[in-house]
Design brief:
CATH topology of the largest domain: Helix Hairpins
Order of helices and strands: HHHHHHHHH
Largest sheet: none
Shape: flat
CATH class of the largest domain: Mainly Alpha
Number of helices: 9
Number of domains: 2
Helix content: over 70%
Strand content: under 5%
Structural class: mainly alpha
CATH architecture of the largest domain: Orthogonal Bundle
Length: 231
Amino acid sequence: MRTATYFFIFLNLSLAMFEEPAVYPLPFLVTSVLEVLCLLVFLGRLAHFATVTLHSVFWKDTKNICIMVAILLSLTDLAIYGVLRVYGVRSIRWSRIVRPIFLINFAESRQIRRAFRSIRNTLPEITYVFLLFMFSLLMFSLMALKLFGERNLQTAEGLPYFRNYLEIVFDLYVLVTTANSPDVMMPAFDFSSWYALFFIAFVIVNTYIFMSLFLAVVYNNYKKHLKVMLG
């Protein structure tokens, strides 16, 4: 039963790759039949729990309530989406976000729930580091606006360079991952090579210091909460 439950959970989560918009699109009828099959299996597994558990205990268990609500939401969304599709109205499958609930809340997923609780308990304690990081990002963005915004610089595509504060915040946020490096600094570097020092300082502070600190806090707190739960 455990293997079957995991198989249908995996199948239910995998449907996202085949539903529109899909990586490997399948007809709506195929994906909807597979989803209904998965939901029926989950409902049967829940009914099995109910037969071997006291009613007072079964209905007080929030995991069972979450599974029932997720099944109801998924069926409702599937029915609405199907009806709208028949009438040619485009819509989205908003119930996809509830599918991980099945992975977390079945009795077989005790280890996953334990890890999930550790992550949940860790989140409040990393808030302070995250706020410091955001403050640093916002301050560097303001500095970039003052440094480059009034120099009428342009990107390689001919677009204004660092003149909108929110766009600067986004570009520097991406720079933390180095995904847009060195492209993001080239217009400023072409104007004056000294401006490279600004981007070097930003990467050192935010990528190397803050991200390392962030990872250390997450790891230490996660390990601490996991150790407490394991006793």
